[in-house]
Amino acid sequence: MVLAPFVSNPERHTFAAMRVRVLIVDDLEPFRSAARAVIQATPGFEVAGEVATGEESIDQARALRPELVLMDVNLPGIGGAEATRRIRADQPGAVVLLLSTRDADDIGSLAADCGAAAYLAKSVFSSESLAHVWATATEGPG
Asked: Going by CATH, does the domain composed of 2-6+26-118 fall within 3.60.10.10?
């Protein structure tokens, strides 16, 4: 797992008392379904919405205001990195987790460059990795 710089949001430190709303962005329905199952099985998280393109992710992030966005790197239209840049420009407190089937060596620096909190290979996406990335991204420096 590669962690990139992020903007801390102190309001998110109380996530145990609230449900973290997650927007799933992936063009493949089987992965959206798997991600949905992981989110539903993870205490404190809920699915806010699902979309299949980078353009839809920007619109839905603006409409739904999720705390966390699971963003596939390879999407039709604008890719996941550009969609992440645009979402973070509009919502600096949003945490974006980039996902792909490619190795971290290929994608890791992309996460930092586009403002994502981290990159995670789809093959290791789980309740534990979801909770870990959220905790790491929201704990802030120091």
From this structure: no
